[in-house]
Specification:
mainly beta, Metal Binding Protein, Guanine Nucleotide Exchange Factor, Chain A, binds zinc ion
């Protein structure tokens, strides 16, 4: 496709790179917040933008063998998590093409919404 410009997201909340503020995913694309990454809590998201992937490699995980790629911020090159290319276990197939973003590496930002009064 050759699109090199950055994509700016708008949603109820936006996940950004903690290092540089690069937009990565919208709150609506989160499939699960129950994942565990290398640094603790992690999110499974439908799609991430403004990132690039490393080499595919097979990794033995708690949920079985997967082919994954490390995912990096396209602006500051921080490793943010990984992408599932292929799941060997049939019940893990839903993860294929999905992204893991490490909580430790990202910030969540409410977008276009003021905090409720009286909180
Ligand atoms: Zn970044």
């Amino acid at each position: 496709m050759g699109r090199t410009f950055r994509i700016y997201l708008a949603g109820e909340s936006v996940f950004t790179c903690k290092q540089c503020g690069n937009h990565l995913a919208v709150g609506e694309s989160v499939l699960s917040k129950q994942f565990t990454g290398q640094h603790g809590r992690a999110l499974l998201v439908h799609h991430a933008v403004n990132v690039y992937c490393g080499e595919a490699e097979e990794r033995e995980m708690r949920t079985g063998k997967h082919t994954v790629r490390d995912v990096f911020c396209r602006v500051c090159h921080t490793c943010l998590g990984w992408k599932y290319d292929f799941a060997f276990e049939p019940e893990q197939k839903y993860k294929e093409g999905r992204f893991i973003l490490e909580r430790e590496m990202i910030s969540e930002r409410p977008e276009g919404k003021m905090p409720a009064a009286g909180m």
